[in-house]
Amino acid sequence: MARKFSDLHCHNHMRAHLHMQEKREAFEKKDEFSPWTVISSNRAGYVKGKMGASYSQCDLVKAWNGNVRLTFNSLYPLERQFVLGLDKINSVDLLNIAVGVSTHHKLPLRDLIQTFYMRIPKQTVDYVQSRNYDYWESLYREFEFVLMDSGKTIDCNKIHTSGVIRRIFENEKKRRTKFRKELWAENARYLIPESKNSLEESLQNDNEITMILTIEGSHALGTDLLEKGKISITEISKRIQEIKNDWQVPVFFMTFSHHFNNNLCGHAHSIPDKGKILLNQIHNMNEGFSDFGKRIVLELLGLDNNLQKDPKLGYRILIDVKHMSACGRQEYYDQIIRPCLAKGDKIPVIASHCGFSGVKTLQDHIDCFDKEKDDFTDESKKFNAWNINACEEDIEMIVKTDGLFGLSFDQRILGITKKNKKSKRNGIELLWDNIEGIAKSAYANPNLTDAEKSKVWKCMTLGTDFEGLIDPIDHYPTVLEFELFSNNLIFEIEQARKNPKAKHLSHLKSREDTEALVDDFCYNNAEAFVQANYPR
């Protein structure tokens, strides 16, 4: 039987939605307004494994043909800082100043950059730059978009080729025949489960993608308006209740912080040095929770101020700590997770699309904030040591709470530096280094019992961040390479378990055991996690 795959964090609909959202009527007339529609992309970028902007990494057609049967599809209203110019040029370098000034959003070069780099139509860029753009409204538009075809079996998908010249010179039928797995799906179907019962039915159906909804960034609730006094915290709370009570399907977890200030909790440093010329994420970066943030995170979890479950607050939306600053994670664990765990309320910690930092504690991360330059690594030189990644303390909390770690496929997040970008390590070796690093950290952790240490293998899965404009690991640029990845991973583990000192692999007695472990990582762990924690 073909190996199934899951992905704890991806954006299956993102490319289609961003491309079509401002021209909905035109796409509806052509019967193309659907999450299944493939926006024809640049194959050269795909073949070379370049940054995932010119091509799709995980659209629904690729997911279907790549045997992805469980996807945690993240709704993400694009943060406006990505398309706005800097208010203040934080540089004395003349080149940086020139670039910063010339790429202000009021000048055409900025729109040109966004259109060609992010492959977002100019109409969408203009809308996000405008005063009319509203995160909450955008979130709901995304929600409606992914819900529209849930539970429907399509005969076949549509393919949209942008640009008059491409439509003249490219034959869609020939491309569809030649690159069938990339462009074409028949009798395909996905379902967003409304309840645990429908979840179980969907998971048992291999002819259906089970789609779990998540949200990336609490800014999606419209929290940017708190700073301007244009919304009250009470209104933000009402929006959470609207999601819980009025949305037809549940939201499983929320990635609480993202790249920029949300007025609730500080975000981890995430933008590389060269990106600072265009983007400024300093405001509230690496800070902890605000008073508003503490209130909102409790309401998402369905807890009152005494950390007691409150039925009036509705079902529990879990918290994803990816992008949350080390200060924020420290507060979250100390003030919520550990106290709740002590009294029997185990709240799973999720780190949905991370790398391993190789750092021991969150305090170590905090002490090294000012060292986070592009090639900042841990002592072993293997891992990206920025606090956006998970340290040993994070892994301990994930294991103790039966949480889940999703392995990103972003090469920079996983530890590729400028020096080794073209090296052999930029492949399965890099991914295995991170997986093994996590396992070794758990087995060496004195705060974990022997039973807990072995549980670490049930707490890891794929969390690629595909369609999040990442620069993917060489050889695995899309979900279509998952099968190749899994076979390569089996080979790596088979080699590693021959070492008698590898205590973290001592439970693997045969190749069959190794294949079972890889099956768990690629699918079974994520399935068991959603079965245990789906809210309705």
Automatic annotation (TrEMBL):
Xref: InterPro entries: Metal_Hydrolase
Against Gene3D superfamilies, the record matches this protein to: Metal-dependent hydrolases (3.20.20.140)
Organism's domain of life?
A: Bacteria
Entry protein name: Membrane dipeptidase (Peptidase family M19)
Q: Which organism is it from?
A: Algoriphagus chordae
